[in-house]
Amino acid sequence: MSSSDTGEAKDAPKETITVSEEAPEELTAVVDDLLNSLTTQFSNVSSDIFDKMDDMSRRLDALEDYLEATGTKSPK
Q1: Are 64 and 74 in contact (CB under 8 A)?
Q2: What is the reported pLDDT for 21?
Q3: In the predicted model, is pLDDT for residue 59 greater than 60?
């Protein structure tokens, strides 16, 4: 069976995949945007955690003050 029998031309041009010169620049821009987004999200979460820890600290201080004022001893 020859190549002409299979319906494919022997000298058919092969497809070539060309990579645009802009592709690395686009990838760099996308990665930069992603990193900036993650940095912002991390900063926001860190700030929220510190705010909650500060609030918890104030509440514990208030509880200790209340226990001292009422004469109740805290467990150790």
Answers
A1: yes
A2: 66
A3: yes
In the block, residue with structure tokens 């070539």: 16
What SS3 class is residue 21? coil
Q: How far apart are CA 53 and CA 50, in angstroms?
A: 5
Alpha-carbon distance 2 to 10, whole Å? Answer: 9
**Whose CA is closest to 75, among 64, 66, 65?**
64
Whether 41 and 49 have beta carbons less than 8 Å apart is answered as: no
* pTM tops 0.70, yes or no: no
* Residue entry with tokens 């820890």: 53
Asked whether 67 and 73 are in contact (CB, 8 A), the reply is: yes
